[in-house]
Amino acid sequence: MSLAGKRILLVISGGIAAYKSLDLIRRLRERGASVRAVMTQGACEFITPLSVGALTADTVFTDLFDREDEHDVGHIRLARDCDLVLIAPATADLMAKMATGQASDLATAVLLATNKPVLAAPAMNPAMWSHPATRRNVETLKGDGISFVGPETGEMAESGEAGEGRMSEPLTIVAAVEAMLAGESDRPLAGKTAIVTSGPTHEPIDPVRYIANRSSGRQGHAIAAALARLGADVTLVSGPVTIPDPVGVKVIHVERASEMLDAVTAKLPADIAVMVAAVADWRVATASDNKIKKQAGEGPPALELAENPDILKTVGHHGERPRIVVGFAAETADVIDNARAKLERKGADMIVANDVSPATGIMGGTRNTVRIVSQDGVENWPDMDKDEVAGKLARLIAEKIA
Ligand code: C5P
What we know:
Blueprint: E1 7-12, H1 18-30, E2 34-39, H2 41-46, H3 49-56, E3 60-61, H4 67-72, H5 74-80, E4 84-90, H6 92-99, H7 106-113, E5 118-122, H8 126-130, H9 132-143, E6 147-148, E7 152-155, E8 162-166, H10 170-181, E9 193-198, E10 203-204, E11 210-211, H11 218-229, E12 233-238, E13 250-253, H12 257-266, E14 272-275, E15 282-284, E16 305-307, H13 311-316, E17 324-331, H14 335-346, E18 350-355, E19 367-368, E20 370-374, E21 377-380, E22 384-385, H15 386-401
Parallel strand pairs: 1-2, 1-4, 2-3, 4-5, 5-6, 9-12, 9-14, 12-13, 14-17, 17-18
Antiparallel strand pairs: 7-8, 10-11, 15-16, 18-20, 19-22, 20-21
The protein binds cytidine-5'-monophosphate (C5P).
């Protein structure tokens, strides 16, 4: 989607993730948005107003009591002359001030004065994010109508510590901005329902062990969000993942393939089905109710496997088959031939084929190189971010269903 003509007021607060806000500005502007920035004093410790201003091509506002700026623009106008206020990064401190309605500097004054939608991209140390005070503040802000994107789980830039608290990637934030700004005119899937599966499945061996795979859920979650941005009413059935639920989507969390199948079929009829999950092909035939013990003198236990239901195939041949059924084909060899065969076998309209050989880094990574295989032939898409693949696929689905 284009953000042409949209005016974003970007509030940058003081966290190490502020360096990502420079790329965020670039991403917003290359989609046609104009970006005006407000920086807190803390933000200026991490990145300079000079670099922010060079990227926004506008004045950068930092001071509530700047006589020139207050006279020219003023904090009330700053707060209102925009289509959306985006806070990235949103620190624990800024959110605490917002939650208590403080207006002690320009950023907080603008946030208190605005009558526009506000989207926050939190970034902080995992301990700060999980602290009860931050949890309370986030709940308060949600209650006040503030939307959130992220944070994500990953390694922290400053400490190398891992956990939830890392600011979402710029393109994920851009996607959330687009979702919030999508007007009625750009919602070709309004009134349509979609089911998306995502992530791996966990197939229990016993109460503590399971069979799993390396799927992160990034591609499926991005597709669910992209369909929602185009107006579809989306249900995402997700296996166990560590990424946050996407914005604007109903999410059903499941563990096993059998649960995923039940959740998907319960949502039929639907207009669109996109089965992205890396469903385990096999489960353990009879999972043990108790932890399987190591027995002295006995060798390792044999695991008898049973085939899991094929969810895509079930949907593709269902009495209430959606009008558009899309499957994925993660292969390490003969990608196109396998995708063609899958199209037939699974009753899909389209197969998104990708090479997931370890060298590609696709499985679990943030980028993807896909080929779209349908009755019309094969379309090769260039290497893209998973959010971009999702946006393009959602558009293609909207065209096919029109
Ligand atoms: O046969 P294969 O696993 O390669 O097919 C991949 C496609 O089928 C994906 O779209 C995946 O979501 C779907 N699938 C499924 N249920 C299974 C296995 C695969 O829905 N049990």
